[in-house]
Design brief:
Helix content is about 45%, strand content about 15%. By secondary structure, the chain is α+β, with helices and mostly antiparallel strands. It has a domain of about 170 residues. The strands form two sheets. It has a three-stranded antiparallel β-sheet with strand order 1-3-6. A three-stranded antiparallel β-sheet has the order 2-5-4.
């Protein structure tokens, strides 16, 4: 595959301006990685069962929510106040995800260029990958599995059927907007999200050859897809300097 062939392939996956996209895309810098969320990797490594995983997750959300209300702007937490049914766990998951706390959520984007950025970001000696979900088919599969049930009621039920649900962030922010973000979330915190789509054509993986990563990052930067735009604020500025070091032209000269 050439760099032009790669960009042509991804260009065909650009979504129309619409409330419901055709595709969700997720870039990962190592093609051997599965679609296990950060929390799932931790609890599976510790060999926790589903009941234990739900318990530790509930405790973590409680700890995070108590402190977050005191340090985060009110507009980020105002809609996540406890209800008669307890904490809004899915709402807190999306906020925790933003601040790098492990959750059962996976980040996706409606932009193939954002996905390519993350597929090329690190692991220069490994092939990367872009996972592609057919959005409409995925929604139909989830709805059929739910069979009229409320997905939110399954989150803390250790006996719930395994379902992967597609959702937008409950509380958006600059970073989610910049990355055109969406989430997948499973009713089972132990579940690899790819397993839900096994045996279907809903999920596809595009391998990004390692020799194209640097070229792709250079071209993405010319399209204004870089750390400064995807991570608004000082955090993105710092990340951009890291990219500068990695992609600096050795033939450039100070005159």
């Amino acid at each position: 595959m050439t760099i032009d062939e790669l960009f042509s392939k991804l260009g065909a996956l650009c979504n129309p301006i619409s409330l419901h996209p055709n595709w969700l895309l997720r870039g990962q810098p190592n093609t051997t990685w599965s679609l296990e969320p950060s929390l799932t990797r931790i609890v599976n490594k510790r060999k926790l069962n589903r009941v234990q995983a739900i318990q530790v997750e509930q405790e973590a959300v409680n700890k995070f929510s108590i402190t977050a209300r005191g340090v985060l702007p009110l507009e980020l937490t105002a809609t996540l106040l406890p209800s008669k049914d307890g904490l809004d766990f899915v709402g807190w998951f999306s906020l925790m995800q933003h601040f790098s706390a492990p959750t059962r959520c996976l980040d996706w984007s409606i932009s193939p260029w954002v996905a390519l950025y993350f597929a090329c970001l690190d692991y220069e000696d490994e092939d990367g990958a872009i996972w592609v979900i057919n959005y409409q088919q995925a929604v139909r599969k989830a709805d059929e599995a739910l069979n009229g049930k409320n997905f939110m009621e399954l989150i803390n039920n250790p006996n719930a059927i395994d379902i992967v649900h597609l959702t937008m962030a409950i509380n958006s922010n600059e970073r989610i907007e910049a990355q055109q973000g969406r989430f997948t979330i499973s009713s089972n915190p132990l579940m690899d999200h790819a397993d839900f789509y096994a045996g279907t054509d809903i999920l596809e993986k595009i391998v990004i050859p390692k020799n194209l990563k640097s070229l792709a990052m250079t071209r993405l930067n010319s399209m204004n897809i870089n750390a400064k735009t995807l991570f608004p604020g000082v955090d993105g500025l710092g990340r951009s300097i890291r990219e500068f070091y990695k992609n600096w032209d050795v033939n450039s000269q100070i005159k």
